[in-house]
From TrEMBL:
This is Probable phosphoketolase. The lineage of its organism: Bacteria, Bacillati, Actinomycetota, Actinomycetes, Propionibacteriales. Belongs to the XFP family. SUPFAM superfamilies: Thiamin diphosphate-binding fold (THDP-binding). Its EC number is 4.1.2.-. GO terms for molecular function: aldehyde-lyase activity; magnesium ion binding. Residues 786-812 are annotated as: Disordered. Its cofactor is thiamine diphosphate. It comes from Nocardioides lianchengensis. Residues 803-812 have a biased composition (Low complexity).
Length: 812
């Protein structure tokens, strides 16, 4: 245990009394929010009508959060600290709202909640009430970038916020229940990725109050030496504050805050003035106080304060139970509100002076409202990095490596507000060209055999998808731009975190004082169709299905078919605001189909007819559609077979880049009108659709379309193993031969005249399967396939789309 008071100033009695008064005021407001509809100043005894009919909220963690907030304000005033506050126990919403109200920010942003008695009544009434605000530290709460509705993310959010904010201190309260979660456990290692020269600092405050909803917490029930050893092992100097006597705890906390900031300031000074960037232990505070501190000690003969019973609503029958209501009144009067608020409900002047001023208030700090600080990226035109395409399929590139070359320019031109995050996959996903202009940041030991590892860098990698997700969320929510590169199958690990972020974006779109923040951009590579060496465990395209469940205002999904469309798509995503953009692209060598100009046009339209592959002359007998790089390859290979074997068959090829274009315009801003969709796909012709992911998603997106009954989708159907690339598509019946069979089976005009071709396809599939088993490779005619139909000019029909698909997606 480190003596928090060593080398720090003491807390004078007068200042102690003031801080305690602020703490009591915040506690009073927290209790009032949970319980009261009326009588906010207790000007008379409580009656049933003063109590909310449904008591919702969490008291247990609130007094601890209020204590931390009060002492952070003291530190801010004394040292002019630039700080924001993240509440890991996000269900402590009453505390965050109370402090934002005491600082005056709440009434500034919500004038109906005035800084007086009527405003206090509205503050109480709105909490966890229909038409009001949630009980968590929600987007509606000034100063919040972390709702905490799902536990485990507070430290990763905090470190993401601290990156590239050299004077920012992010105070992150970790609940001891949250301490048990997997994402939180990994995020303790985030301090190995801070550069004290260019980054801010995170001050973790582990609040040990002993209990979760109905159980003790693990860290509270192990030996203190064991817990402190663990925290030291994570790289922290542990400053312990412990007790249940308010005056004693205030003195300890003031000393701990002073010492912690003194250590942070010295680490910054040594790094920035002396060049000393060797990793030192960063300070943290271990705060041990009773759960539900200052609340009812016993209710109905059972202990409450300091037990799990204090977690939510300690007195549950206050509307109908006279004894409970009397206890509530006694509890609230124990804070002596008459000393804290005037008869008009206004906070007394000497307490108002305890709040920092202007944007130094944590509830008004612009870093907690990142849209205020967002600056657009300096982005080169992607055409400057586009690959040359003399004819469709005439050249081959690795799309993500081409993107890596583009990102060289992005990193170079945006040295302080753009980062690439990933779980050890930047090089694996072929983005490693960026190492020409940046390194991977790492504060641990670096040895001679390491490559591109340094104390500073724009690439941040840790083998924890949860931590990467939290970092990029914290980074973008505070106004910077990021790209999260991940293997497609394992992005599922952050499904829940994505949920929370998407909900945050959706909610903040309707909050006028929160400007839009940069989008969260996913690049999913090493995808399902090219995981032949890793096999079934790495084959899962279902994240897309998860994403499209969210509100249309905030989600976008892109499936660029080649290198140039990937460049165009990514430039758009990096320019965008307030979305979650999911881009799926392969890293293996693949054909180039479109020039830079064609790619730009095709991506702007989101879906279009590829004339170079079509011969329908405006009247197709069958439509072959595709979304994704491998589906596009298989569709074009099928088209080549059909055009050579059945030259009179009128085929239209439609490629979809923006998956949301398939929806009705009333369902998604990118959706096509029915007329545009019908012009593209027809109303009474068969549509064979090869799709990157699970087939039923395409049916779900198009169920309102006129020709839905003619739509047949091929995609991944949970068949996979370690095998060749083509055998993988055959296992899922999305191969070119099966697509030809689908065309024959579903095109009425063919009748039986294509029976021999169909038989040939069946036989060829069998031969291809046997070949892989005998030779460990794909059939030479598949492996060495090229696009150009026999006897045709490869430059014929260069335009990727026609008038029928001329409408563009809403905001590409």
């Amino acid at each position: 245990m480190v003596d928090a008071g060593q080398g720090t100033s003491s807390l004078e009695d007068a200042e102690l009394a003031e801080i305690d008064a602020w703490w009591r005021a915040a506690n009073y407001l927290a209790v009032g929010q949970i319980y009261l509809l009326d009588n906010p100043l207790l000007e008379r005894g409580l009656v049933p009508e003063d109590i909310k009919p449904r008591l919702l909220g969490h008291w247990g963690t609130s007094p601890g959060l209020n204590l931390v907030y009060a002492h952070l304000n003291r530190l801010i005033r004394r040292r002019d600290v630039n700080a924001i506050f993240l509440a890991g126990p996000g269900h402590g919403g009453p505390a965050a709202v109370a402090n934002a109200y005491l600082e005056g920010t709440y009434s500034e942003l919500y004038p109906r909640v005035g800084f007086d008695k009527d405003g206090m009544k509205e503050l109480f009434r709105q909490f966890s009430f229909p038409g009001g605000i949630p009980s968590h530290v929600a987007p509606e709460t000034p100063g919040s970038i972390h709702e905490g509705g799902e536990l485990g993310y507070v430290l990763s959010h905090a470190y993401g916020a601290a990156m590239d904010n050299p004077d920012l201190v992010v105070a992150a309260v970790v609940g001891d229940g949250e301490f048990e979660t997997g994402p939180l456990a990994a995020s303790w290692h985030s301090n190995k990725f801070l550069n004290p020269v260019t980054d801010g600092a995170v001050l973790p405050i582990l609040h040990l109050n002993g209990y979760k909803i109905a159980n003790p917490t693990v860290p509270a029930r192990i030996h203190r030496e064991e817990l402190e050893s663990l925290l030291r092992g994570y790289g922290h100097e542990v400053l312990t504050v412990e007790g249940d006597d308010p005056a004693d705890v205030h003195r300890q906390m003031a000393a701990a805050m002073d010492r912690a900031y003194g250590t942070i300031a010295e680490i910054w000074r040594a790094a920035r003035e002396d060049g000393d960037v060797e990793r030192r232990p960063w300070p943290m505070i271990l705060m041990v106080t009773p759960k539900g501190w200052t609340g009812p000690k016993v209710v109905d003969g059972l202990p409450v304060e300091g037990t799990w019973r204090a977690h939510q609503v300690p007195l549950s029958g206050t509307r109908d139970n006279d004894e409970h209501r009397a206890q509530l009144e006694e509890w609230m009067r124990s804070y002596r509100a008459e000393e804290l608020f005037g008869a008009d409900g206004v906070l007394v002047e000497e307490l108002q002076r305890l709040a920092p001023t202007g944007t130094r208030r944590m509830s008004a700090n612009p870093h907690a409202n990142g849209g205020l600080l967002t600056k657009p990226l300096r982005l080169p035109d992607f055409r400057s990095r586009a690959v040359e395409v003399t004819a469709p399929g005439a050249s081959i590139h690795e799309p993500t490596r081409v993107l890596g070359e583009y990102l060289v320019d992005v990193v170079r031109d945006n040295p302080t507000n753009f980062r690439i995050f990933g779980p050890d996959e930047t090089a694996s996903n072929r983005l490693d060209p960026v190492y020409a202009v940046t390194d991977k940041v790492f504060a641990g030991n670096i040895v001679d055999t390491d490559e591109h590892l340094a104390r500073s860098g724009r690439v941040v990698e840790i083998l924890s998808e949860h931590t990467c997700q939290g970092w990029v969320e914290g980074y973008t929510l505070t106004g910077r731009h990021g790209l999260f590169s991940c293997y497609e199958a394992f992005i599922h690990l952050v499904d829940s975190m994505f949920n929370q972020h998407a909900k945050w974006l959706k909610t903040t779109r309707d909050i006028a004082w929160r400007p839009q923040v940069p989008s969260l951009n996913y690049l999913l590579s090493s995808h399902v169709w090219r995981q032949d060496h890793n096999g079934f465990s790495h084959q899962d395209p279902g994240f897309i299905d998860h994403v499209v469940n969210k509100r249309a205002e905030v989600v976008r999904v892109y499936l660029p078919p080649d290198a140039n469309t990937l460049l165009s798509t990514m430039q758009h995503c990096l320019e965008s605001r307030h979305y979650v953009n999911v881009v799926v692209s392969g890293k293996q060598p693949s054909f180039d189909w479109l020039t830079g100009e064609e790619a730009d046009l095709h991506c702007a339209r989101g879906a279009g007819i590829w004339e170079f592959a079509s011969n329908d002359e405006g009247d197709p007998e069958v439509v072959l559609a595709c979304a994704g790089d491998v589906p596009t390859l298989e569709v074009l290979a099928a088209v080549k077979i059909l055009r050579e074997a059945l030259p009179d068959l009128r085929i239209r090829v439609v490629n979809v880049v923006d998956l949301m274009r398939l929806q009705d315009e009333t369902e998604h801003p990118h959706g096509m009108t029915h007329a545009d969709y019908d012009n593209l796909f027809g109303t009474d012709v068969p549509v064979i659709f090869a799709y990157h992911g699970y087939p039923w998603l395409i049916h779900r997106l198009t169920y309102r379309r006129a020709n839905n009954q003619h739509l047949h989708v091929r995609g991944y159907k949970e068949e996979g193993t370690t095998t060749t690339p083509f055998d993988m598509v055959m296992m899922n019946d999305m191969d070119r031969f099966h697509l030809v069979m689908d065309v024959i089976d579903r095109t009425p005009s063919l009748g039986s005249r294509a029976a021999s071709l169909r038989q040939e396809m069946v036989d060829t599939r069998r031969r291809a399967r046997q070949w892989t088993r005998e030779h460990g490779d794909d059939l030479p005619e598949v492996r060495d396939w090229v696009w150009t139909p026999e006897g045709e000019d490869p430059t014929r029909g260069r335009s990727p789309s026609v008038t029928a698909a001329a409408t563009t997606s809403a905001d590409f």
